[in-house]
Amino acid sequence: MLILLILCSAISFIACAVLIRYGHAVARRYAMTPQRFHAGDVPRLGGVAVMVSCTAGWLWMLVAERFLAIRNLIPFDPPFVLGLWFVTLLALAGGLGEDVTHRLKAAWRLVFTLLAGAVAAWLLSISIPRLGIPLLDMWWAAHPWLGIALAIVAVAGLPHAFNLIDGYNGLAGLVAVICCFALAYVALLVGDRQIAAVVLVVAGATAGFLVWNYPHGLIFAGDGGAYLWGAVIALASILLVQRHEQVSPWFPMLLLVYPVLETLFSIYRKAARGQSPGVADALHFHQLIYRRIVREVFDDDESRRMLMRNNRTSPYLWGFAMLTVVPAALFWDRTLPLIAFTLLASVTYVWAYVSIVRFKVPRWVRR
After folding, report:
1. What is the pLDDT of residues 159-200, one digit of tens each?
2. Which of 58, 189, 220, 316 is the most core-located residue (most Cβ within 10 A)?
3. Distance from CA of residue 313 to its chain's centroid?
4. Predicted local distance difference test score (pLDDT) of residue 27
5. How many CA atoms lie within 13 A of 51 on its CB side?
6. Angle 171-185-197 (CA atoms, 0-180°, nearest 5)?
7. Are the C-beta atoms of 166 and 263 separated by less than 8 Å?
8. How far is CA 334 from each of CA 133, 187, 190, rounded to the nearest angstrom?
């Protein structure tokens, strides 16, 4: 599997270099929005490079042992690979349409991800068979359509969750890598090399992209990259829980609680103001950190000052993500601790958000 990481990283690195060289024409059409915290015309086509790399990695797993006599012990069959690739492509297409035209409305992007979730339920037979709560599991098992519906919602929703946290250099990309490694770790513990390989391909492809993205911000993942990360990680999480009873369904919940909380809180915040959830604003958690915590940056060049603040914002959120990923990986088969840490993460998120809004952040945090 180390070969997969190296291969996908190299392909993504080269693809990003090509897009940086020839993608500025598309970047010039990128309008000023509340989410823009960079200077210059930067292509938002990193998702294309990641998709090219993932396609090569998944194809390698399919042909390496069958046709090249390279023993990798990864059970990949054509129907699974094609289903995985097609679902990922559908999710990517919705985001890429916005990255290229900057005119694709949020409702249409949601249609693409819902379609990806429905196709995943059809081609990959995904379902969430249990909730990990004994009093509900019997009732849940008696209504299997609920598990299918929840799986579709997860595949449709997580891409948008990753898109919401994709605001600064390296932020969503490194969160995706961390989540992929945690999923691969648990998958290998239960002997599922197929799921481990799927997410390691994404991790490798994202690593090649991050070389260009952080700290210099030469290319962005765009909506397409965020949708790809969300779709594949959602699929891997569902399949892991579906195939292995010892994996608690609260493991992926805690693992991904940061982007999920960001999405739910964003919907609540906009609903409270009478706005549509699709309306862009500059009040996300990472944006508040940028505006109110990462302020003491000094440089004569304004664009360089903006870049430095951009880069210093992401580590705060990486730290928050690690506080949820570590207990998720430690207690992946124990529902009660996972629920407890999920509640703790939720309370911590709300407390931190409110503290920043009310300017009650300790000074040592701002240093």
Report:
1. 999 999 998 899 999 999 999 999 999 999 999 999 999 999
2. 220
3. 18
4. 58
5. 27
6. 85
7. no
8. 11, 15, 14
Using an 8 Å Cβ cutoff, are 74 and 197 in contact? Answer: yes
List the structure tokens of 162.
Answer: 């990753």
Closest CA to 1 of 193, 271, 279, 191: 193
Residue 283's pLDDT is what? 81
Give the tokens for residue 121: 């339920």
Q: 120 CB contacts (<8 Å, ≥6 apart)?
A: 83, 87, 126, 151, 152, 155, 235
Q: What does the block give as tokens for 33?
A: 């929005």
The pTM for the full model equals 0.92
Positions of the chain with pLDDT lower than 50, given as ranges: 34, 38
